[in-house]
Amino acid sequence: MASSVDRSLCLGRCSDRGVCFASAEEYFCVCYDVDVDPSDCSPLTTSTAFRLADPSEDFWIYWLLLCLVGTALLGAFCAVGWLVVRCCRRYRVVLVREDSEEECVVAGRVVPNAPPMEEEVADP
Description:
Number of strands: 5
Keywords: Membrane, Transmembrane, Transmembrane helix
Radius of gyration: 46 Å
């Protein structure tokens, strides 16, 4: 029959991941997790070989692609803005003959007629 004892009696204190039991012949660990070494409840180490991606391999390709897309979007935005200003924000200029008494409309605003200029007198 086994009974629970202090962890300090077991190998490696059961790595603080299990309970130490005493049997008639020895001390042994009963671990909380199943994926550990049953002798001392230490984590199992497996050597799985895998290759980490070199961060500099694709960085410059993505950076160049990002710059090209950003430049294209900025160019499209500027072109649309230019078209809006060019086509939609036009103003009408109305020219009125000089001998007319009507007011002149320039850029949608009424501009009053200036008083007639005095005629210059020619020297004899």
